[in-house]
Specification:
By secondary structure, the protein is an alpha/beta fold. It has three domains: 2-43 and 96-166 and 256-332, 3-Layer(bba) Sandwich (FAD/NAD(P)-binding domain); 66-92 and 168-254, D-Amino Acid Oxidase, Chain A, domain 2, CATH 3.30.9.10; 339-392, no CATH class. Helix content is 34%, strand content 28%. It contains 13 helices and 18 strands. The chain has helices spanning 13-24, 50-56, 60-63, 95-109, 156-161, 227-235, 284-304, 309-312, 314-337, 342-352, 355-364, 374-380, 388-392, and strands at 2-9, 29-33, 47-48, 64-68, 70-74, 80-84, 90-93, 112-115, 117-125, 128-135, 138-149, 168-178, 186-190, 201-205, 213-218, 244-255, 262-263, 266-268. Strands 1, 2, 8, 9, 10, 11, 17 and 18 form an eight-stranded mixed beta sheet that branches. The chain has a seven-stranded mixed beta sheet with strand order 6-5-13-14-15-12-16, sandwiched between helices. The chain has a three-stranded antiparallel beta sheet with strand order 3-7-4. A hairpin with a 2-residue loop joins β10 and β11. α1 runs parallel beside α7 and α7 (284-304) packs antiparallel against α9 (314-337). The longest helix has 24 residues, at 314-337. It is globular. The chain starts with a strand and ends in a 5-residue tail after the last helix. The relative contact order is 0.15.
Length: 397
Amino acid sequence: MNEYEIAVIGGGPIGCFVAEQLARQGRQVVVFEEHPTIGEPMHCAGLISQRVLGIIRCPQDEVVQNRIYGAIIHSPAGDLLTIGDDKGHAVVINRQKFDRYIAHNAQKAGTTLLLRHKLVTLTKQLPTLTLKVQHEDQQLLFRCNLLIGADGAHSRVRATVGFPTPGELLPGISAELSDATLDPKYVHIYIGNKIAPGFFAWVIPTNTQGTSARIGLCIGKQHARSLNHYFTTLRAEPLLRGTTVTKRFGGTIPLGPLKKTTDERIMLVGDAAAQVKPTSGGGLYPGLRCATHCSNTAEELFRNQCFDEESVQHYHTSWTSDIGRELALGMRFRAVFSHLTDHQFDKYLKKLNKQKTLDIINAYGDIDYPSRLVLPLLKTSPALLGLAPTLLKRKTQ
């Protein structure tokens, strides 16, 4: 029986960041990652704010591939809405290097990282938890005082313990391209039911020459065709003609943060808890913020030697107090967005395409906190007030 104070299921950036913080406190931490390589397979578009790099203290030259200054939004009718200015609003990262940077820091801090180790069963034998883990052709037993589930959108920890499921699980498909001729300063966003019903498609230049790109899309429940059909439609866009697919990958985006993320001696974090921005599907910034709340609560539990459900729930209270409102507002915006018709998309984009409105978007737009834009935008563009009741109403449940 292998014994650790803390076991983390999932060796992605969120799980490894939690592990690093706890290992630096002197805790005995093990991370189980089912895949053979950190950073593979990739499930992320790799577009983040500078805040993310600040949280993990990562030097720019370690992972940054390109800087983004704006976005060009394509309406269903083919109209363009261009937003942005001369300020860098986001960076494009190499996700493999990003993930490995965090995993390396965790190991330097003292974390044991076990690859090709997949959780099979979890048993509560209080005062500890017993984990059965598959490694190649053998099953191993581990014991821990605290378990942290950071095992993604299809979390086995979440399912095993009986936590609630995310409100939505959006399937997605992505690819890396060469031979592109893009303006490297701008991402392209495609909306509408022809190309990405219920969500959107993206084209992100991944180098400063605009010759390589990362493209992808997700679809909501209302799709009428297969994911591959929509991907083929995206590939046929004039912007992408002549490009070459060098790598394809996919994934699932969980939306709708869980109402319960803790149990006795157990916490969920990151995609496993659906701590994901509903407006963009980005999980790194909210996941890393929640990872800090997770590690702080875990350290408090060990200091007090109290792991009951009430004590562990401090983590849920902490992270929801921090970003819960932002995620809830994002879900309200998503409820509006996901039901717009192509005609409505065209209409609203035309209303936004005025210099005064664009100035407000450029001044207040924030990919990590999109809610900061809502009130200034409604004030400047009263024509959007038809969307306001759904966006601003209080939750009744």
